[in-house]
Amino acid sequence: MVEFKDVSVTYSSGVDALNKVNLKINDGDFAFVVGPSGAGKSTLIKLVLKEIDATSGDVIVNGFSLRKLRRRKIPALRRTIGVVFQDFRLIPTMTVYENVAFVLRVIDAPAKYIRSRVPYVISLVGLSHKAKSYPTELSGGEQQRVALARALVNDPQLIIADEPTGNIDPALSYEIVELLKGINECGTTILMVTHEHDLVRYFGGRIININHGSIAFDDVIGGSNED
Amino acid sequence: MKINSFRYLVSQGLKSIWTNRMMSFASFCIMLVSLLMVGVSVLMSINLNRIIGGIEDQSEVVVQITDDISDEAIQELQEQIEMIPNVNTVEFYSKEEAWENMMEDMTEEEQELFQYADDNPLPDTFRLTVTDIQRMSETTTQIETFDNVESTRSPTAFADVLISIRRILAIISAAIVLALIIVCLIIISNTTRTSVFARRKEINIMKYVGATNSFIRIPFFVEGMIVGILAAAGALLLTKFAYEGVYNIFNDDFRLWNILGVQNLYSFDDLFWPITIAYAVAGALIGAVGTSISAGKHLKV
Fold first, then answer.
1. What is the complex's ipTM, to 2 decimals?
2. Beta strand A30-34 with A56-61: parallel, antiparallel or unpaired?
3. Which of A135, A170, B34, B258 has the most Cβ atoms closer than 10 angstroms to its Cβ?
């Protein structure tokens, strides 16, 4: 669960990125966060990952109150979140398998579990045949699927997808969102930031529109794929 | 942390030496040159110290004994002198020996002049060396208070010169070594910083998936340590060749040094373990600490 309570963020440059935002995303929700560039979408994500601190208010993520959270507890918070970035952010010196397994190594998972879990998750995103490849040997869509497998592998409560379709072929974008929808059906909360309105219209669901640091719209709409 | 994870992190460190081989090689070279520079200057300094120490050891104090005293009294005086803590060696040099030596050093004409001397004017003497040259005059003063001592002669002026040379050399060599260490640390830290900077994205990703700082640091630590130890091994090998070359020159062609009373340089075997340990510890420590400190700068995400 993600909850924003009267959250404001003012950067040192004086820019008000968020202004008294109140927002609640329940466990198992799938929400699209939309809005123009500079509206505050990235700030929202940074807050959830505790990359930055709120100037005022509190953010609750998977039971962690981020205002009180000590720095050394940040890894524990991040282990409950899977993140998919627009630029994939895979480790170039590691194979697909190693990139995914790395997350489990970080949480000290038993070797036996890693050996069974990683191939399974890689198969879920349809890349079993590329497990030994390096990120540079993959297409954009494939890299994003690896990133998705990585976000998924430790069974996080929440997956944040920050413009996951921004760097890939539009046709593959639907595939990525389909994968996210599938993960969501298994109970994982998904927060997907995008500015691809076609995708949002197609899939529908909860839409949170941020503009000028405030929530301009937060409601559920039907998707055209349901027609 | 489980042993399994630790093993994984160590293997990652080893692997990344090869993966980032260009940067590893750059760090290796910089560390090798740095260790070599510091090592060679330390070796030069300790050898200079030994040479001067050797000259100091040759500085003798001559104690003239009063004429016509019994062998027992001479024996007693020698025991008294030997009791002084600063006295290293004591050698009795009889007036007859002194006379013979003096004659040997003379030309035939000079010898003829002394041939008819009816009495040996030279005194019995003790020749002694001291442990601490700085306390030479104190020691001679003490000897002068003993019975049956006619007079003493000691090269105190020479000793003073040696003391000041040694002091100046100690200061200069310490300053050079210190300056080299500082310069090397700056260069090494810049190299490791560049090496780590190239991998800041990697560190960033690790942070996002919930890696703790120590989890990220350990492979860097291992990597830096191994590169440091390899550099130390390289430096040791080069030092050995260079040092033995210089040592052989001194040993074979400059016997004159020995005639002048200058002691030989330390052999490489004498210094093998101290050099090896110093290089290994310095290499491993600088490599490991330098790299993990540089990595730490990218951990605040």
1. 0.83
2. unpaired
3. B34
